């Protein structure tokens, strides 16, 4: 059975479009100025927000930035060109942030738990931590549930001879501003 030219054209166009969608697994953002900025990667799995130039969580902050949220949009990495260590988790968002001033990260974890044949959502407490990113440095924020709590940790990326490694970076638990 011979295909007419139109269905073949539609078939080939569909392959091209789908190939383009498959290749677009990441989006790159704005330019980076290492003399005044730092870069921060947040891994998928929590809902997380950044609060800039504060070492506590403001009660009302119109400038807060949601940097991670559960959902299908999280399966497209948003990158700003940070090096990726070999133990990186598949899905993440990267941001350029002002350096040499406090950055507060607030996050909450929601995990699915199966009890018997039913799936329940277990929501962990919302937590916040703060650190001061240094200009020209790259950091990763990792949010995970630990002993019925939300734990926020940070690590700094170090690139030596094209090999990317990580080292722990101090991040301090904080609270709502008074």
SSE blueprint and pairings:
Elements: H1 5-23, E1 26-28, E2 37-43, E3 46-52, E4 65-68, E5 77-79, E6 92-98, E7 103-115, E8 118-123, E9 127-131, E10 138-146, E11 149-160, E12 163-169, E13 172-173
Parallel strand pairs: 1-5, 2-10
Antiparallel strand pairs: 2-6, 3-4, 3-7, 7-8, 7-9, 9-13, 10-11, 11-12
Keywords: Signal
Organism: Paraburkholderia edwinii
Protein name: Lipoprotein
Structural class: mainly beta
Global shape: globular
Terminus-to-terminus distance: 76 Å
Low-confidence stretches: 1-24
For the record, the count of structural domains works out to: 1
Model description:
It is a single chain. This protein has one helix and 13 strands, in the order H-E-E-E-E-E-E-E-E-E-E-E-E-E. The model is unreliable at 1-24 (pLDDT under 50). It has one domain. Strands 3, 4, 7, 8, 9 and 13 form a six-stranded antiparallel sheet that branches. The chain has a five-stranded mixed sheet with strand order 6-2-10-11-12, with no helix packed on it. It has a two-stranded parallel ribbon with strand order 1-5. Helix content is 11%, strand content 48%. Keywords: Signal. Residues 1-22 form the signal peptide. This is Lipoprotein.
Explain briefly what this protein structure is.
Helices cover 11% and strands 48% of the residues. With 178 residues, the protein is mostly beta strands.
């Amino acid at each position: 059975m011979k295909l007419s030219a139109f269905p073949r054209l539609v078939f080939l166009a569909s392959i091209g479009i789908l190939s383009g969608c498959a290749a677009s697994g990441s989006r790159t953002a704005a330019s980076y100025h290492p003399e005044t900025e730092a870069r921060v990667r947040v891994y998928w799995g929590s809902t997380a927000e950044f609060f800039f130039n504060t070492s506590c969580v403001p009660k009302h902050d119109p400038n807060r930035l949601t940097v991670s949220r559960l959902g299908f949009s999280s399966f497209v990495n948003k990158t700003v060109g940070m090096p990726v260590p070999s133990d990186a988790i598949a899905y993440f968002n990267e941001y350029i942030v002002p350096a040499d001033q406090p950055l507060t990260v607030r996050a909450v974890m929601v995990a699915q738990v199966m009890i018997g044949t039913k799936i329940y959502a277990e929501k962990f407490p919302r937590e916040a931590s703060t650190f001061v990113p240094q200009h020209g440095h790259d950091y990763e924020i990792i949010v995970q549930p630990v002993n019925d709590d939300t734990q926020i940790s940070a690590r700094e990326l170090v690139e030596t001879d094209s090999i990317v490694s990580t080292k722990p970076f101090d991040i301090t638990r904080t609270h709502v501003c008074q």
